[in-house]
Amino acid sequence: MDTVAYDDFAKLEMRTGTVVEVKRHANADKLYIAQIDVGERTLQTVTSLVPYYSEQELLGKTVVVLCNLAKAKMRGETSECMLLCAETDDGSESVLLTPERLMPAGVRIV
């Protein structure tokens, strides 16, 4: 496993977030388009969580978000952040990372 310097790790802006809107992507079977409140702003993500979570399970969920990921287009939709998950090597299970206790949106992960 490669190591990274603390200065590189410190460049990652990870925050708690709240899923405030989620809908199925019209042109992809396994994708959701979700709006994530990360405190002072709301970011859009395109995430492949359809096999693991229903829309109802995601809505209102507190999550851990990588906020300063470069924007990317996924099936025509802009993804501005990434929801962090633990995923098995074979992809049979993917679980969102969440704070141990309830935290407000926007709290910095350190």
UniProtKB/TrEMBL annotation:
<dbReference type="InterPro" id="IPR002547">
    <property type="entry name" value="tRNA-bd_dom"/>
</dbReference>
<protein>
    <submittedName>
        <fullName>tRNA-binding protein</fullName>
    </submittedName>
</protein>
<dbReference type="InterPro" id="IPR051270">
    <property type="entry name" value="Tyrosine-tRNA_ligase_regulator"/>
</dbReference>
<keyword id="KW-0820">tRNA-binding</keyword>
<keyword id="KW-0694">RNA-binding</keyword>
<dbReference type="GO" id="GO:0000049">
    <property type="term" value="F:tRNA binding"/>
</dbReference>
<feature type="domain" description="TRNA-binding">
    <location>
        <begin position="8"/>
        <end position="110"/>
    </location>
</feature>
<dbReference type="InterPro" id="IPR012340">
    <property type="entry name" value="NA-bd_OB-fold"/>
</dbReference>
<dbReference type="Pfam" id="PF01588">
    <property type="entry name" value="tRNA_bind"/>
</dbReference>
